[in-house]
Amino acid sequence: MTETSLYVLQQLINGLTIGSTYALIAIGYTMVYGIIGMINFAHGEVYMIGTYTAFITIIGLFTMGVSSLPVVLLLALMTAIIISSTYGYAIERVAYRPLRGGPRLIPLITAIGMSIFLQNYIRLAQGSRDLAMPALISGGIEFGDPDVFEVSLSWMQLIIWGVTLASMTALALFISRSRLGRACRACAQDLKMANLLGIDTNRIIALTFVIGAALAAIAGVMLGLYYGTINPYIGFMAGLKAFTAAVLGGIGSIPGAMLGGLILGITEAMTAAFFPSEYKDVVAFSLLVLILLFRPTGLLGKPEVEKV
Amino acid sequence: MSDNLLDVSNLVMRFGGLLAVDGVNLQVKPRQIHSVIGPNGAGKTTVFNCISGFYTPTDGTIRYRGKAIHRMSGHRISLLGLVRTFQHVRLFASMTVIENLLVAQHRHLNTNYFAGLLKTPSYRRRQREAMDRAAHWLQQVDLLDFANREAGNLSYGQQRRLEIARCMVTEPGLLMLDEPAAGLNPRETAELDQLIMRLRDEQDIAVLLIEHDMGLVMGISDHITVINQGAPLADGPPDQIRANPAVIKAYLGES
User: Which InterPro entries match (chain B) (predicted)?
Assistant: First the structure.
């Protein structure tokens, strides 16, 4: 293979990795929007809290002398999911539910306020400097011609793909097969009617926040380990990117969020491959502008049917 | 205590300066078809919205089986056995017909998470019962062949019938239908007529009906309440209502 094609392959691998984490975070935006029509701008911070929780758990386990890699990874993932879900639930309960039914601008402003609050709370509690996440998983496989270009696929990248695939499959099965998933779909289509049919819509709304937060926590743990450094501001950019992914795929649509995340990740990696890498954010957000101009419902979103 | 299933007394609903409902009383007896009629804008649907928990009434009381429900949220009211349809079809259009009926039985399936995860025998039994109930009602409304279609792809008349089936799987005590015959052709209206009467006779339920089709109303109602401009105008059996000069005046205007 030529150098260029190997290089493109490498970027595709990198893009797919970042893209799958965008997709995981984007689910949280899209599910909440699908049901109550609000953008939860504090969602990026929930992701950031997941990363911090994993960091604290890993350091804590190391100081206690636990060094078995699967145990550390699993515990880090579990605590991150539990703590982030609790935050997700609490945010909805405290900041959004009392304001539900008000004009659309109000929950939006609360969400931004919540985001600023959480960011600064973590900054005060954990300090604003970069923390180094211990490199738990190193190594990988390399292929290609050593003289031309060597493509590397790290174990961490493979784990990210695997975990994302497993989470997405679990979510898809939950939504399509389970009783609660069915109730979620019903709420997304007609919240008031679902309520009148005896579904406790407040519980379903809380559930979507919890599911979104859990998936964001999974993304947080993996991206933290992948990048190696964390700080209280990572939630902002990750949140914006995931939001872009959700809009790109069609906000409100779960397969759309998955597709949007992957497309965005690959686009960014390809941009970084052929242009100075600072341009990747420019291209990512230009994509958002273009999709809003030419296909506001996103790739897989259905046009909103006017309710008579 | 009275033997009324539903007791609405002195219901008042005000939207800002607009008095939409002013002192309406309704007494629905068990196993009766009770119709609410009145000219457009009389406040019939607002009364429905108050009863079903869509609106919280400004004043007055609503009792269902003696229990005050006018401050309850919609899902609590529906759990008590009071379900409704809307003037326009409100199905979950992109779910299948059978799923529409299963989602309405959410509360019947309400076991805890672990039972669901472990698929315990009682959980399985409830699942099966829900499925049986759904199939039974699909047969009742003649939609069994369409069980796996998307609800949004059904014809309008079929969607109307599916809505009624979706209400019935919740095993209600009082079924509230808001203009169920709107947009139906005469044959479909006649079928609906039969269906509603069958519900009253075979199931132990009362039906509260808003309808403009006077043929339907006069033919099947046991009792009629007339509302005009938010206020009660007349109340009685169909023959009485038909002969009531005030009702005729409200519908046809002064001569």
Answer: AAA+_ATPase, ABC_AA/LPS_Transport, ABC_transporter-like_ATP-bd, ABC_transporter-like_CS, BCA_ABC_TP_C, P-loop_NTPase
pTM of the entire structure? 0.86
* Long-range contact set of residues A255-260: C-beta below 8 Å, sequence gap at least 24: A255/A300, A256/A30, A256/A298, A256/A299, A256/A300, A256/A301, A257/A23, A257/A26, A257/A27, A257/A29, A257/A30, A258/A23, A258/A26, A258/A27, A258/A168, A259/A23, A259/A299, A259/A300, A260/A22, A260/A23, A260/A26, A260/A298, A260/A299
Out of B155, B171, B187, a domain closes at B171
> Mind listing the pLDDT tens digit for each residue in B143-158?
999 989 999 999 888 9
Boundary residue ending a domain (B132, B154, B171): B171
Q: Give the CATH number, domain containing residue B223.
A: 3.40.50.300
Confidence of residue B2 (pLDDT cuts 50, 70, 90): low
| pLDDT interval class at B246 (50, 70, 90) | confident
- Residues of chain B neighbouring A184 (CB-CB closer than 8 A): none
Same domain, B47 and B121: no
Contact B73 A190 (CB under 8 A): no
Model ipTM value: 0.79
pLDDT digits (tens, 9 = 90+) for A219-258: 999 999 999 999 999 999 999 999 999 999 999 899 999 9
Q: Which chain B residue lies closest to A183 (C-alpha atoms)?
A: B103
What residues of chain A score a pLDDT lower than 50? Answer: 306-308
Q: How many domains in chain B? A: 2
Q: Provide, as residue numbers in chain B, all residues whose Cβ is less than 8 Å from the Cβ of A185.
A: 92, 95, 99, 103
Nearest-CB residue to A189 (from B74, B84, B93): B93
Nearest neighbour of A186 by CB, restricted to B77, B86, B103: B103
Q: What CATH number has the domain spanning A3-294?
A: 1.10.3470
- Residue B87: inside a domain: no
Domain that includes residue B232, residue range: 1-81+172-254
Is-contact B60 B22, C-beta < 8 A? no
By C-alpha distance, the chain B residue nearest A193 is B90
